[in-house]
Records
---
Amino acid sequence: LFGDSRSATNPLGYYSPSVQENKVIDDLLSAMVGIEGRYISIRKVRGKEGRFIFLIDASMDLVLQEWIEKMFPLCNEFLCICQFVETKSHYKHGLVNHAFAAALRAFLLDYQAMVAQLEHQFRLGRLSIQGLWFYCQPMLGAIHALSIVVEKASAANISGSSTLNLLQSQANAMAGDSAISSLLEKMTECASSPYLGILERWVYEGIIDDPYGEFFIAENKSLKKESLSQDYDAKYWKHRYTLKDDIPNFLKNAAGMVLTTGKYLNVMRECGHNVQVLLSDRPKLMNFGANHQYLKCIKAAYEFASGELLKLTKEKYDLLGKLRSMKRYLLLDQGDFLVHFMDIARDELVKRPEDISAEKLQSLLDLALRTTAAASDPCHEELACCVERSSLVNRLGTLKDLEHGIKKSPAKLSENNKSVSNINGELDEPVNITGLDTFSLSYKVQWPLSLVISRKALTKYQLLFRFLFHCRHVSRQLCVAWQVHQGFRSFNTLGTAITRSSLLCRSMLKFINSLLHYLTFEVLEPNWHVMHDRLQTAKSIDEVIQYHDYFLEKCLKEFLLLLPHLLKKVETLKSICLQYTAAVQVLMPSMYISDPDISDSLASSKGKKPKGRGQALKPATDCTSVRDSIVSFEKEFNAELHSLGPILSSSSQAEPFLTHLAQCILGSGSDQ
Amino acid sequence: QEAELERLLVRDVLHACQGIDGRLIKFDGALDGYALVDPSKFPRDRRIMVFKLCELGWLFRKVRHYVSSIAGPPDAIGTVGQAFRGALNGELSDYYKLLTVLDAQSRSPIPPSEGSDGGDYLSLRRLAVWLAEPTVRMRLMAALVDCCGAMKGGAMAGAIHAHASRGDPLVIDFMSRLLRVSCSPLYEAVRAWVLEGELRDPFGEFFVVSTASAGSLLWREGYRLQPSMLPPFIPRDLAHRILRTGKSINFLRACCDDQDGCTITASKDVSIGYGETAALEKLVSEASECIDRRVLDVMYGRYQFKDHCLAIKRYLLLGQGDFVQYLMDVVGPRLSEPAGKISSFELSGLLETAVRASNAQYDDRDMLDRLKVKMMKHDEGDRGWDVFSLEYDACAPLDTVFSASAMERYLKVFNFLWKLRRVEHSLTAVWKTMKPNRIVSHQFTKQDGDLRTRFTSVSRRCQVLWDEMNHFVTNLQYYIMFEVLEVSWSRFLDEMETAKDLDDLLSAHDKYLDSIVEKSLLGERSKGIRRSLLVLFELVLRFGSVADRLFEGIYELQQRGRTKSSRLKRLVDDGAGGGGRKELMRRGGEFLSKMGADLDSIANEYSPSLDGFISLLPLQPHVDLKFLLFRLDFTEYYDRLHPRT
């Protein structure tokens, strides 16, 4: 027993080469599994993680020394991998690293078993150093390739998808060596199995089960779905779930699809619909070899999710019905309700916006809804009214991203005007704006429809509504003025201001009515039908959102709301009309000469007709002031109207819809 | 010889791995590990190998020490602890099996005889290969043992679970096996609780604890979740559902006396365990659906919850008009007396009379019996009006919903409504005296001069003030009755329809009460406006009494004037009649001017109070109150009267 330990102290050169070989092989077998022997010592290199130096007893036979040194890289690489396994199995390094380390450990176990087999041969006296070298050959390449991967991985200290990417790229780089590349592929497969597990839960259930943050989709829990229906700049849909930077290569192309699949599933879960692919129907996301089977699985899951969600929004939440009802109210599809409302709410709406009681308007609105055909619409409860403080033009100025849309529009002309209107925008908030300028409806939208009809979309609807509503108001006022003119039918008005005024009134009416005609029949209806048809055939909710947004954007543009210079013109025209109607109601009665005797007697005997008979017109000479003001209105109106012509025709190159508008508004005007 | 030495080493390593000291390797307390007794005897590689292999022995000692503490006091370990130790024991016995095989192998000589295939012997290197995986497992067990320490129950399950999220398939396998076994007592407890309502938890390990409250408090406070014992793999909402399910069973048993009804038809033999959250969820939702339906059926069916709610609404919230009217008529005169002098016995009798006389008599006798008079605590100077209230006695299990605090709020609402009714009643009474007196006193207008104008002005003053007050009170009452009570009630009915469990029902009821209290200005935040409202009520009552006096006086004057005038005819020569008449005129004039002053002072107080009340309305948090304002001031009369900036 003691003899052996003493013999260890003898320098190796003491023995003959064959004995030396015998002794050294035992040591070498130890060194191959990272254990120091009698003649081989291992030293760590300072400062370099995972580097070792092997020292050999210098008295050894030189030939043997050379043999042994050939073996050292193998030993070194074994130690490196060993160390990697030890460190990366640690809790914090993530699932992929755990799995990778486990696969490496299994590999090392094979290697150790091989060493044990070699020992057996050695014990039987059948192993020479030459034999040892031979037997190690198959392992050499494999260990070397793995050690390269390990070195890179630990140098970059990566985890998750980066590890997977590294493994895959190494496997691809070694594609020429089939044995090694298949080994690396196997490693990749093992390492990716937990990752695919996460992917599977996301794609099939919409749950991120990712304790170490390795998955390529991040969830931002601070974004709430309620923000969609409150916040104009809601980021929920875009930013609730986002792609991270490190996407594994094999999923690069499918990442977007994976993201939306889970997003759809989440929407359905938030609705309380637990739609999941049945466990039995889930194809396992096993490997991601060349056959792209996993891509098919993802595609299938995506189609399932988007189909279900679309079905949900269309059937259960009746998206199209909601949109139709929004069109009915916000785009003035239903006339009787609006007329009734304008009748009863007139007194309230002519006040300044600050003085208007929203509660009173709301109750008037309810009244209008319940007494007209709108009562039969189940959605009419969702409607509310709101009164904003700023005029339409200024409101448009505050919406930043709409400005953006303007910048994109090619007409250079608008650039100048916009800046002018911007500077003025803050200053000339009209002093005399009334509720009629700022009144708008709003519509309560519930989740998940708020995905489509978000606050932003609703705001666009409101902008359209305000424009339409105001046009309608102007048209009604002009009708009133026209009625005033009709009172003069029984007189001989030839040559008086009245004739002139009634002509002006008619041309104004024509203007506003053709504008309304353009807005509703040339813009809203065709675009609506296009969108409606598209929504019928849409395949996913994203498409629905896109089509709906496109519809709104197009309407806004064709409503001239994105072209400030034109919009300003139209607004001026409208305000001239309004001023005119106000003037008419003051001026026209002053045209009568009241004859007290006749009118008194007649007024008492006949209720209705005293106006015509009891009164007479002042002679034309008395009415010069009236005449003057009418003429000035006429001049102003015609000048504005005609100045529209060149702008419309010059811009219509870029914006074809302007031709329609020009035809509508100016069509007959050019004939005159 | 070297082979012999290796064989001995192998045997000793095997011993060390089972925590036994061998001849060559012994446990070294100072090193805290196994070490060779005489290291210098062995070559370096053997020493290192032995050292590495003996780590397993150290780990094993640690685990065995923990497992053997199973014999300790059971309440310190708990069932989960026992199961965990059992699971560890199972793992250890697998380990023993492996060691037995290795031991057998170690007995064959090294190197084997020429003829054998060389598979059946052990060297240290072979041992290293054999023991590699057990070492990983043993390390994990040691780590678990370390972190679990003295924990128990759900907390321990949670601590073990924290180690489970690994990517290593070996670890995943091992942990899920371990967790399945360790958590089984927990799942058994869940099953017993969910299916039978039994709290099988002798050592306080379950995440539901009982607080030993019974009766009406059983539902609200009887059981609660213990967050520290809730393992993270059971989601919080699921835990709440579990809690409610068992609670429902106990509620049915204890409060509803419903023993047979609480059998659950859920598929009981479904296996639940760690990692089968879906199965657990299914079991819980099946059981809870079944039991919740049963609870609601019992509440709605046997205990007629809806009818009781309706009865409370009709009597306590004055929904039954004729009954309230009659009660006001019969009880009113009594209540004007000081609170101390009123016997509640007598009032009960009057209540009974009111019930008999109104349509309430056709109501269910059982519900009418629950209706009682309650006299609240009174101070010196309180009148009967201040202390009178009605009470509805809801017995178990309805008192879970109509808890003491809920009833207190009902009383508060009743008090308010009762006051409002009283004010309205007194206004109507004024109208009733005003109307006939108006006709009778018409002859006053035949009088001439000063008295006539004065009379006209006073009675007009009175009329106008009455109108104004009536407008206010009618609208307020309309608002309370229709906008507040009926709207809340219909919402409550809707929610009752959709309620899925008792908690929903409770919250619906709470919401109902909350909205009533909030909207009828009884909430915390509307103290100021309530005060001004009470001032208004007070003024109206004062007006009532002044008007009463006025018409009484007029009537008296009338009577006297009539007798005077008839006497006047008879004693036309006395000469004294003229003086009497003058005297009468004078006294009448005085009386009228005094009344006029009284009315003026009331009016002077009334209009600023009303103005204050109206100006406070828009500041109220509830949007419905804005509608009240809109209604009170529909013609914008008050707005124009006191233009606000």
---
Amino acid sequence: MTVLPKDRLPLTTSPGERAARRRATAVVVVMIALLALLLLMPLIRAVSRGFTHDGKASVYWFGRILTNQILLSEMLNSVLLACTTTAIALLLAVPLAMIRSSVRFRGQGVLSVLILLPLILPPFVGAMSMSRLLAHYGVLNQILARVGILSNAAAGPDWLGGGFAGVAALQALHLFPILYLNASAALANIDPAYAQAARNLGAGRWRTFRSVTLPLMRPGLFAGGTIVFIWALTDIGTPLILGYERLTAVTLFKELARAEINPRTYSLVFVMLTGAVTLYVLGKFVFGRSVRLDSSKATVAVEAPRLGVVGTAWAWLAFGGVIGLAILPHIGVVLTAISARWVNTILPSQITFDHLRFVLVRPETRVCIMNSLRYAGASTAVDVVIGSIIAWLLVRTRARGRTLLDSTAMLPLAVPGLILAAGYVAITARGSWLESIGPMNNPFVILVIAYSVRRLPFIVRGVSAGLEQIPIALEEASRNLGASRPATVLRITLPLIAASVLAATVLTFSFAMLEVSDSLILAQTESHYPITKEIYRQATSGNRDAASVAAALGVYGMVLLGGSMALAGALLGRRLGAIFRA
Amino acid sequence: MKSIRIENITKVYDLARPDERAVDDVSLTVAEGELFFLLGPSGCGKTTLLRMIAGLTWPTAGRIHLGDRDVTDVSVDKRNTALVFQNYALWPHMTVAQNVEFGPKMKGVAAAQRRETAGRVLSIVQMEGYVRRKPVQLSGGQQQRVALARALAAEPDCLLLDEPLSNLDAKLRLQMRSELRRLIKSTGATAVYVTHDQKEAMSMADRIAVMNDGRIQQIGTPRDVYDHPGDRFVADFLGEGNFIEGRVAKTGATTVIETPAGQLLARIDDGPAAGATVTCCIRPERVTLQMGAVAARPEAAALPATVVGGVFLGEMAQLTCRLANDDVWKVTVLGESASAAPPEGAAVTLMVAGEHVVLV
């Protein structure tokens, strides 16, 4: 055994590698600092305002919340709503994931792409047609009257049930694909040998599912479940459009739109933020921690039975039923947009394309479309650059501080848009030196920052997934044959991840075009409204023509998102799901 | 093509645990044009050593020379080695031609000349008809050839191969052994070849370094290391062996060794002194089996034994025999006698010729 030199530390990496690592570490530090500035500083500012009274640190405002019956009952409502939404989404997602993992049938590939459709269609757009479909004189009651179940449409109930049920149903139908993707991924990672062993020892199908499969899926379900819960807890678009306003999120939205903001509002922000982050941490690190599996790969072959004609029909019915239910509101929006006359009938009695044409020529809506294109374009550019760099640092370098960077970049998943928007409102409050970029003036900068920060995890996930797909040997082979580091990135790495980057870019852009929370709160002057704010304004104006204008804008939004999704799906194939996974 | 000289190379991955050495004080020289094998079980450090020659891993101590040039501090892209990766690492977004031309391109070779080089090496590996294909359109064996062509096109100072046949199915792997050796020898390349398959090493190598636990146990030609294993590990790793301890009773032209199972004879040039304790290694196929009790001959020892089990494998039979001291030996019976191998319980004599006893 040679004696290793004692006077100087022996080296495990080459001087070139060490220099590269130092450079990468420096970039990691810059990235963390940037994220801290754009994400953490506004939050800290907002929270600290809630704990300041008469210029001193105080829990005065916090105490005011705890003694306010209305605020407390709204909080209870919000939690109940989030619980209901999550439960419905679980009930929809888990059986579908089980079907998908245990049998094979024709058209499975098509359905597994279509099931993402509800996720991309914004629920608040769909919400616009909910009352049309489900109210007293709504389409559902018209149909029931037609087939003779009701004597006449007016005799039917108001299916929206005062709003709560409608909001929960709409949110669940929008969000269940997140749980479906997580459940599918979890199931795919469970060695079928575990279930086979249970069956072999005499457990029935149901017993095996309950005692073996479900506990092994738990981490995946928890991770997805917390995201759904936080989303439902802080969603403002759906409840606002449906007019169900006894929720903390809606109160926050209304308070934040004021020119002078009561510190109590920021204290409320603190409560929401704490709740969301706590849940996220619990979901990810405590309950979501995976059971230590001996192997995450299949050690035994499992023969998924191929369904016959009848079985396939049932599977299509299950998937198709849920997907159909989820996009029904959106079909309603399309019908609203093209209806000239739709009163007391199942389908519109007169069709027109005037609304669709009108929104493209009307100056007010044109301004909004241009605004959204600018906001979304700029934020997507920021995301692609920063997100790609972060993904590269995480996957392909040995820089120090990568774990911290990873958690910071994923933090926007835990911080709801509503809360983040409150942070930007706080730092641009009247009298602060950033007032000129605040919501009451030109919100371009803060909207771009808000959109970018919110969608950063998407790009990081998308590009990381692409990078992880590339065996490191492909890059080593290039270096070995004489290519420098930059030449290797340019000739080998970039071409191989181009599809992932492009898909993530397209989706990021579309989601930014239809972002709700930040758009509603951070744009308060008409000339700077993005599309979503204009839809909200028209949809809630109570004017029938305005509703058609809102619906027409919604149709364009859906077309944009549907097209982006199709493009991303074509680029990524089966890997598309990775972007949405918790 | 250049020779490779490795001096006292040590690799420690975790400096907090300096005693866990992936490679421990390895020195060896590979001559110009030699096909040199690094053979050992998984985790023995052979791939780490190969990657250090390529410059993809950095040695903790020691020097590496390619020809007269000390390349220890030279980065991977300036070393001019060419590595054939275990999974080939063909770039999926490039055609066969683009893959093969990559090395010359990085050296700044003009397009026309690149194409010529690529055509030449692709015809060596008989893949000239596939230049426009993408790697996914090729079979495993074809990918393997393209990977070799890509390495050769770079005109490297030495060719490095990391288990290049391990991803092929068993039959193709056998075919490719002689073919790959022929290809490499025809280019005159200095080549280092890593494998854990002892048959691959035995059938292809000019010389073999047998590695275990980060260290080199023995270096020699395939015949050397098989017939004269330096220690028990090498003997065991390169085929099967029967081992028995004994004491040297008499030295001379034939060394007499007293063992608990009986007397063994060994023809060793400068063996240990009388009275020394030694371990003898006898390969199963070197033992001759005779029915009943047979007396020892001057050139061969005779050990009485009982057959306790056997496996008939067609062209041979593998028997297990219990010796007088209850040790169990493996005995291989080849050819026709395999079918006529003695049944379980039969009393036999194991004849062991002096030249087949190796002291390890």
